[in-house]
Amino acid sequence: MQANDPPLLRCRASEPPCEVRRLGRDDLALLSGLLSMFGEAFDDTTTYGARRPSPDYLRSLLGSDSFVALAALDAGEVVGGLAAYVLPKFEQERREICIYDLAVAASHRRRGIATALIHQLRGIARALGAYVIFVQADLGDAPAIALYTKLGLREDVLHFDIAIDD
What we know:
alpha+beta
């Protein structure tokens, strides 16, 4: 955990317990497990496993003020997690947080893990002076849309990827 982080949360009490933890700069093994879990959950093991960054890069990322990685652990195994970016704003002294990736292993879904991850991020957001957390959901991803609808206000927007090279 990092300074000013909220205490660890437990997932739904009626299920076998899991722990939600913020990863720090020395949690490289947990980050590796998180990347592997994302690759399986998103059916994209190439993106999340083929060209992983160096340990120095990952330590720098995990130690920065602009990145938050949370892992849900069940008996030490990563079974869920999220990656988020902290965006300092220019119009006021405040921040936004963007959830970039959020997933739960198929074997651990419907246990409140995704909700626990977002609740943990809310506490971190408050400590960082953020005023909002936002997330994008893909059309057709009914479970994600249901989760985010339960927790937040829906805005219909368009997303565009702008290529760097012409």
